[in-house]
Amino acid sequence: MKKIILFAICLIAIAGSVKAQGFYRPRRYGPRRQQQARVIDKDYYRLKFGFVGGVNLANVFDPYDPTFSTNIKTGYHAGVSLDIPISYPFMLETELMYSVKGYSANTINGQFTQTSNFIDWPLLLKMRLAKNFNMVVGPQISFLTSTQNTFSPTFPIGLQQQYNQDSVGYSTTLLDGVFGLSFDLNRNLELRGRYTVDLQTTSAYNAYYNPQYTNQVFQIGIAYKF
User: Fold this and answer.
1) How many CB atoms sit inside 10 A of residue 80's CB?
2) Residue 25: is it exposed, middle or buried by C-beta count within 10 angstroms (0-12/13-18/19+)?
């Protein structure tokens, strides 16, 4: 009988201990989770300045000639960025970048490559789609600073002069559209990819050899923000 009573007392004690642990566990971990959430929200609403850079996979297309075909030219982009919080999950992201674009082509006269150097100024709406995952969309103004044409030795001198003359007539200011996705690797480092396309043709007049083409660029890069 004494053994049974002692066993019952032990069961009651164990049950009380389990109940107490179950009751106090939320108190122990709840504030910690709330504190972490507050830290995340506070970090999102920070004004962030950063540096950006990466690779450009540039090409062009002629909206008036579906048979026009060129090859990708590899370039790069580098600059600074500023993230301005609006209201969760939206943020304004603006940048100022030096960007190398262009294209290459195999013609009947030989290989031709055009390199166009731009100062890009995107003004984008940034939206957080999920934890550490963002989307950007918006306009961009591109300022053409210089254009260089490179020809293979077989290219006739007369055609080279005509290509160079046509390049002088390019528009120096272009309006672009930008769409992109980014992933936050940590609090400061961001991996991102973008697609940029001109919303107008590059030529200010109807050039004969250089078409009134439209720049398009796939960008892969990183951003360090603090």
Assistant:
1) 13
2) exposed
Long-range contacts formed by 168-172: CB under 8 A, 24+ apart? 169/203, 169/204, 169/205, 169/207, 170/116, 170/144, 170/202, 170/203, 170/204, 171/144, 171/200, 171/201, 171/202, 171/203, 171/204, 172/143, 172/144
Percent of the chain with pLDDT over 70: 77
Task: Quote the CA–CA distance of 78 and 119 in Å, as a whole number.
Answer: 10
Q: What is the DSSP string of 39-98?
A: HHHHHHTS-EEEEEEEEEEEEEE-TT-TT---B-EEEEEEEEEEEEEEETTEEEEEEEEE
The CA distances from residue 80 to 7, 36, 93, 187, 226, in Å, are 72, 29, 11, 17, 12
Q: Would you state the pLDDT for residue 166? A: 82
Give the pLDDT band of residue 16 (cuts 50, 70, 90).
very low
- CA 166/CA 145 separation, integer angstroms: 16
